[in-house]
Amino acid sequence: MSEDFTTIEYLKHGNKKQIKAYFDLKKHNILQLLSSYNPILTGTIPIGIDIPSSDLDIICECKNHDAFLLFLKQQFSKYQDFKVYQTIQNTIPSIIATFKTEHFLYEIFGQAIPSKKQNAYRHMLIENEILKQNGLQFKKDIVSLKLKGFKTEPAFAKLLGLKGNPYLALLTLESDYLKS
Description:
Largest sheet: 5 strands, mixed
Structural class: alpha+beta
Helix content: 40-55%
Oligomer: single chain
Strand content: 15-25%
Distance between the termini: 10 Å
Order of helices and strands: HHEEHEEEHHHH
Number of strands: 5
Shape: globular
């Protein structure tokens, strides 16, 4: 695993959208503002399987949900289409905020779990390794499925022949693809 996804420095040397994301994140100081919540950019843009509608997903560790919700309102409510809400995801209380800058839709996701242990980060690492091992055609096939409406994890599950819940099935591959 060569990429360090805990910073965004790799984006500077990526494709056009990754470079644009790097500059948008820097211009709006997004990760700096979130720094006390251990933010990590996850999703399809970091691993180059995004489609035109892909957003910038940022996961955070938030121990106090009320404080995190207030913080998100204070820092990001000035942005277009700002929304923030609490939900339960995989039985875990979660906070989600969305907003737009001039170039990207952002989704900030917080749980009381260390960022590196959250499923979004784990999925991205597994998907990145699968992409590296399966080559360019596999990557094109993932993007093609996404353009047809598949979410990322179901697209991987389909191409890999994984059964059951694709989000859980992908995590079962963690030990096969990620060396600790």
